[in-house]
Amino acid sequence: MLRTVDDVKNQLKSFVDGLTGTPEKMADKKYQMDKKVGTLKYTDLYPHDRNGAVVTETMLKQLTDVLIDFVHETNDRKCKVLDFQHPEEMKKLLDLDIPEEGLPLQTLIDDCALTLKYQVRTGHPHFFNQLSCGLDLVSMAGEWLTATANTNMFTYEIAPVFILMESVVLAKMREIIGWNGGDSILAPGGSISNLYAFLAARHHMFPNYKEKGQAALGAQLVMFTSDQCHYSVKSCAAVCGLGTDNCVEVPSDEQGRMIVSELERLVKERKAKGQIPFFVNCTSGTTVLGAFDPINPIADICQKYNMWLHIDAAWGGGLLLSKKYRHPRFSGVERADSVTWNPHKLMGTLLQCSTIHFKLDGLLLSCNQMSADYLFMQDKLYDIKYDTGDKVIQCGRHNDIFKLWLQFRAKGLNGFEAHMDHLMEMAEYLVERIRTEKDKFHLILEPECVNVSFWYIPKRLRTMPHNQNRIAELAKICPILKARMMEAGTMMVGYQPDDKRPNFFRSIFSSAAVQKDDVDFMLNEMDRLGQDL
Ligand SMILES: *Cc1c(COP(=O)(O)O)cnc(C)c1O
């Protein structure tokens, strides 16, 4: 008889339950290796001991048990998100000392278990605190493999399979952006991806800069970005010699989107001073409010004044995969010269995984190539276009592709689309819940992304009219309620001020673990912890 997937799962579950009963909490559990193995040392493992097969396998299997228990706890709604300790207390609970003589294997396993005991479970369904969170198991499996393969991504020679995966995945992402051809690279985070865009833009406009430095410019370069942009954009100006005064902040509207008429006014103002506006950063999904700058009108201004258009979609990029949410947010994205897109945010790829894409091919290489003779020989056995290492300003590069490729294999484009739609639906559900519990919560704005900004209203403020006085009081509640959450350990939601308002909560839906009952839990828990404030 044919069985359904659920039948199989239920059968497996009762089998597992029968084996283990209720799972023991990591905190109470001893990860005791066989005594003989436990007292051995690293010198009894490969490669120090050529016959270390049994000891190595015993130790790794024990470690795997620790890791799998952490995965169970991360997904167990009855487990806490964190066991908060102040730094001075934490120091007493851990043994962080570097010993003269190396410690036995059992101690290393105990160290691993203790480390995870006090680690925040960022993949827990009640963790709403960060843009990069969740624990995607396929991506995690990929990261395990990556660590085991332990290679460097600079040449095909030593990473043949991973280099080809990089080329296939990045080409697919450019196709999703809407380009034919182009070039891309993975970078250590969105901040560095934005830096690559800046470098390529300057190189494109002033090819001599690479050799001549400032002398190649003639006049002051100026870049533009909204006042809601990620701070890494401004740091490009500091790092690349423009100075932050020449990273012009364009005002944003109530929703946090760049005001395009202001952009044009500020461009003209700088041109009138004899300066060279050359780069505009358009944010697709701002870090705090999740706002999307209007791409098409910004692209028109870039065309008119001959400026490079960079889109920082580090945060919002995942929504390119959703037919439902891509428009109008990303309408016009194909007009960009470069796009930053972090799979380690909305797509749930394990940290870190960030990509930068260029419409023009060849720019990355001509901008960053230094032709180190000992790595990038021109007379190699194979087609050296696969030696990607000379496109970047790093030398060694971590393998960030395998876990993303494996995730794409597991989900397919349809699975990723469903994933993005689910995150947006959770944000929409929270908005709906906040609206129905108007007395307890105040929604600050209609979100465009999965950032939901709101205030919690304790009992004593529920009848007060919503004005500046009440906002000032609500803002004071945020750090106190956050502290209570952390001490209770039951959930985490972030708060911050912005330039239009004092402290407010910003809940993030970036973890595939979150379901509607977790959203309900968040609101109920805030009210449980905060109503007397
Ligand atoms: C998070 C973020 C970045 C920075 O990415 P990292 O990977 O943390 O360096 C850049 N831009 C935006 C809009 C972001 O939200």
What does this structure look like?
This protein is α/β, with parallel strands linked by helices and 533 residues long. The protein has three domains: 15-111, no CATH class; 184-370, 3-Layer(aba) Sandwich (Aspartate Aminotransferase, domain 2), CATH 3.40.640; 410-530, Aspartate Aminotransferase, domain 1. The chain contains 17 helices and twelve strands. The chain has helices at residues 5-20, 35-38, 53-74, 87-93, 105-117, 137-149, 160-177, 190-205, 209-212, 231-239, 260-272, 295-304, 323-326, 363-368, 402-436, 468-488, 516-530; strands at residues 127-128, 183-187, 221-226, 247-250, 276-283, 308-313, 338-341, 354-358, 441-443, 451-456, 492-496, 504-508. A seven-stranded mixed beta sheet has the order 2-8-7-6-5-3-4, with helices on both faces. Strands 1-11-12-10-9 form a five-stranded mixed beta sheet, with helices on one face. β5 (276-283), α12 and β6 (308-313) form a beta-alpha-beta unit. α3 (53-74) runs parallel beside α5 (105-117), α8 (190-205) packs across α10 and α15 crosses α17 (516-530). The chain is globular, with a radius of gyration of 26 Å. It starts with a helix and ends with a helix. Pyridoxal-5'-phosphate is lined by residues 131, 189-191, 230, 232, 283, 287, 312, 314-315, 342, 354. InterPro entries: PyrdxlP-dep_de-COase, PyrdxlP-dep_Trfase, PyrdxlP-dep_Trfase_major, Pyridoxal-P_BS. This is Glutamate decarboxylase. Pfam families: Pyridoxal_deC (PF00282). Belongs to the group II decarboxylase family. Its cofactor is pyridoxal 5'-phosphate.
